[in-house]
Amino acid sequence: MNQETNFIEVLNSHYNWPCLYPYKFIVPSNLGKNLEALFDKAERVEIKPSKEGKYFSYTILYPVASGTEVLEGYARAKEIKGLVAL
Asked: How far is CA 21 from the centre of its chain?
């Protein structure tokens, strides 16, 4: 079993689909709008700047129908240079 399959199984055991999944990211402040564009159908977005303002911490509640869709969201986000998924 690979990591993706394991992660999907863990997600399936903790969430009832469909649901709002809480994505969490840290992104350079100049690329925050890129992340927001990827999750434009978000139910809620919380943004907190770092002390020096170089980074933003994002919590994004996004509607998903399955664990596979959660992974697809992470795959889209990882294209942003400097992004850290939590």
From this structure: 8
Q: How far apart are CA 34 and CA 2, in angstroms?
A: 30
What is the CATH classification number for the domain harbouring 49?
3.30.70.120
pLDDT in tens, 24-67: 999 999 999 999 999 999 999 999 999 999 999 999 999 999 99
Domain hosting residue 40, numbered range: 3-85
Distance of CA 80 to the CA centre of its chain: 12
Radius of gyration of the chain (CA): 13
Query: Count of CB atoms within 10 A of residue 27's CB?
Result: 23
Tell how far CA 32 is from the center of its chain: 12
